[in-house]
Amino acid sequence: MNSLLQSKPRSLFRYFTVSALAVMLAVCISTVQAKPLATPLEGRWDLTVDMNGKPAPSWLEVTHSGNHTLVGRFVSVSGSARPISEVHFQDGKFNFSIPPQWESGENDFSVQGTVQGDKMSGTLTTPDGKSHSWTGVRAPKLRRTSTPAWGKPIKLTEGNMIKGWHAAGTNQWTIQDGVLKSEKSGANLITDEKFDDFKLHVEFRIPKGSNSGVYLRGRYEVQVTDGKGMEPSYGELGGVYGFIAPSEMVAKEPGEWQSFDVTLIGRMITLDVNGQRVITNQEIPGITGGALDSNEGEPGPLYIQGDHGPVEYRNIVITPAK
């Protein structure tokens, strides 16, 4: 009798242990099964919009949020990256709507498209009710397998003649003793030469309340603003517009000369502002508003913004990878 009583607890223990393990295994299996499968839409896309016969760059990123919801970010032909609260996707077709940013009009900005493999196409309707067609391809990862060897530095601002640059419109830029100056809002200034990976040193001076920017490969804007006293932000000095905020705000007083030292390798950017590291090897997800194109896999020019107010630049030196 005693041996029988003693055996029952052991049997019950084994039973409950096996049952607990079975429950745990079922939970694990259901968790694995519940993990959402990636849709063909997910990832980053470089878009080109037909704006009345002229190509204009745009960008889209789509990711999962939870089991069933698709969310994302969108960069239009102007403005910063803006969040998409939900992307509707079924049978290869998708659509989403977002509030207007800098566009004129009171309606939402809406996008419709179809994805097929690594390509997509569709139409977008701006808040003023105008529709435009667009096409897209998957954005390249731009990952580098080794650190580049650096070539010979190229000076882009010397003397009293603007050399190696062209204006995107009627030129208002002048140069004297190596100082490029835009006294009022006007055209942006673009290098004739295009670059892949590079190191860049640039010095600038901006009056109170003005705004400019340095576009890397003509696609990724590093903000030049009157940022003294501001909180670090992707829209202020040293921010990659719409994507990356500097770790600190190290702006000097307006009217003082300041500097950027940039290293761009693939998508990875490191930035010193006024000699202080504020971005350390962070990824730029995609093009920023105001980009020249969305061909991220190709070399691109350097360009400086002259359409947002007066600004001066000097000692612009770029060192391309070999």
UniProtKB/TrEMBL annotation:
One protein family per Pfam: 3keto-disac_hyd
Coiled-coil stretches: none
InterPro entries, sorted: AL/BT2_dom
Keyword Signal included in the entry's annotation: yes
GO terms assigned for molecular function: hydrolase activity
Keywords: Signal
Keyword Signal: yes
Signal peptide span: 1-34
Domain 3-keto-alpha-glucoside-1,2-lyase/3-keto-2-hydroxy-glucal hydratase: 153-318
Lineage, highest ranks first: Bacteria, Pseudomonadati, Bacteroidota, Cytophagia, Cytophagales
Record's protein name: DUF1080 domain-containing protein
